[in-house]
């Protein structure tokens, strides 16, 4: 995989990178004819790499598996973006592939959801609980987001920003990370105490497992 850097004085990265996230590149304009399907072989040959850094900047860089621009590769007119808006260290970035959106979170707990429109990235949604986030995960279909906070608060919302459910776990449960089940019908929340809490789509705890 090759990174495509633009030739400019602003292209270089000169600070610590906190997190990475990659998404395959889809056509700028989706064909409208019936029966068109996304080629997974081509989809995972090109894409966008997102970076989170300590200076509060979210980087988005075009990547490709094709060397030297051969094999009919269509390089975008712009291959590097610096998304600014965070005022503290960006700690995580997560692509939403089905909706082609990007979520970024900083050390204060502010979450931005970015969307690309007419060649420019802009902030579509802002979430701020004023509490550090320990985990952010999009559902596999891209319709929902699971957000876990340092204080034990767990929230599931829609890609459009609507809250579906939220709950506060017991104070003895310090959340380290969270994940969706393959069918997006349950979420797994892991704790620093070595346990996993299983919750359904309504936020009800259905099981607890100690590892």
Structure description:
- This protein has 211 residues and is an all-beta fold.
- It has one helix spanning 40-43; strands at 2-3, 17-24, 46-53, 57-64, 80-84, 90-96, 101-106, 110-117, 120-128, 133-138, 144-149, 153-158, 163-168, 175-180, 186-191, 195-200, 205-210.
- A hairpin with a 3-residue loop joins strand 3 (46-53) and strand 4.
Task: Briefly say what this structure is.
With 211 residues, the chain is mainly β. The protein has 1 helix and 17 strands.
Tell me, briefly, the overall form.
globular
- Share of helical residues: under 10%
Number of helices: 1
Q: Can you summarize the main beta sheet?
A: 5 strands, antiparallel
Beta-strand percentage range: over 45%
Through-space gap between termini: 37 Å
The H-and-E topology, N to C, reads as EEHEEEEEEEEEEEEEEE
The parts where pLDDT drops under 50 for at least 5 residues are none
Structural class by secondary-structure content = mainly beta
Overall average pLDDT: 87
Rounded to an integer, what's the Rg over CA atoms?
A: 19 Å
Q: Could you give the count of β-strands?
A: 17
Topology:
Layout: E1 2-3, E2 17-24, H1 40-43, E3 46-53, E4 57-64, E5 80-84, E6 90-96, E7 101-106, E8 110-117, E9 120-128, E10 133-138, E11 144-149, E12 153-158, E13 163-168, E14 175-180, E15 186-191, E16 195-200, E17 205-210
Which structural traits does this protein have?
4-stranded antiparallel β-sheet; 5-stranded antiparallel β-sheet; 211 residues; mainly beta
